[in-house]
Design a protein that fits this description.
- The chain has a two-stranded antiparallel ribbon with strand order 1-2.
- Helix 4 packs across helix 5.
- The protein contains 7 helices and 2 strands.
- The chain is mostly helical.
- The longest helix is centred in the C-terminal third of the chain and has 12 residues, at 156-167.
- It starts with 28 loop residues before the first helix and ends with a strand.
- It is globular and about 45 Å long.
Length: 228
């Protein structure tokens, strides 16, 4: 089994200012597109780079902080708009929407086999196949009561947990002695502590990339030049 384009070396989740990363906050469609831009390989970022998109609510060429990420992710076929043509970048993503995006990364040879549902609350749901597929691959899990709750907003911590599983990242992949930390992610006993730390730190001896450079007008994929 292979995932198209995905790399795993660099931190892909960045803070929100004042040393916060909001693990329990919802993740928006714009934020998810930005993460996609960071986890694809350098070659894929170059090959699919574009500063234009078809959405009337997403300005082209860095007109908004999320514009370039949405443009590239849409060009890759990973994120799509709504029937009315809009993208709605600030809308929170649901658990079902996230697994649908993940399923689009998968090779066409990897398909849901049509067997019984992995969760009791997804029968007839529009994302049923994607939910079953990603669950069978071990990328997602349900709640303690066995449900998936597909229409619930997904948190940044839940999102990071799923991406870490896809990338195969664990705490052994980061420099735990010198990692970046966050004022709202300090309790090591909370289930998501390491998920956030793994997502927001690079592999040892790898400088951080300047992901914010990709948000600017006339940005180029090579503008992620590493920063110390």
């Amino acid at each position: 089994m292979e995932l198209h384009f995905i790399g795993y070396t660099y931190a892909y989740l960045i803070g929100e200012g004042s040393g916060r990363i909001s693990p329990t906050g919802a993740i928006t469609r714009a934020e998810a597109a930005s993460v996609i831009l960071r986890i694809v390989s350098d070659d894929a970022r170059v090959n699919y780079w574009t500063l234009e998109n078809p959405f009337p609510d997403v300005p082209n060429n860095g007109g908004a902080w999320f514009s370039n990420a949405v443009s590239v992710a849409n060009n890759m076929g990973i994120v799509k708009g709504f029937p009315d043509g809009t993208f709605d970048p600030n809308q929170h993503m649901t658990r079902a929407e996230v697994v649908t995006v993940i399923a689009r990364f998968l090779s066409e040879e990897i398909q849901y086999d049509g067997s019984d549902d992995m969760f009791p609350d997804i029968s007839g749901h529009w994302a049923r196949n994607s939910i079953n597929l990603t669950a069978k691959l071990g990328f997602i899990q349900g709640h303690p009561d066995g449900t998936f709750n597909p229409n619930a907003d997904i948190t940044r911590a839940e999102f990071a947990t799923i991406i870490n599983r896809i990338l195969g990242r664990t705490s052994t992949d980061i420099d735990t002695a010198n990692m970046r930390t966050w004022v709202d992610n300090t309790d090591t006993s909370i289930w998501y502590y390491w998920a956030i730390q793994i997502a927001s730190n690079s592999k040892p001896d790898i400088p951080y990339r300047n992901w914010l450079a990709l948000q600017l007008p006339n940005a180029r994929p090579g503008d992620v030049n590493v920063v110390n």
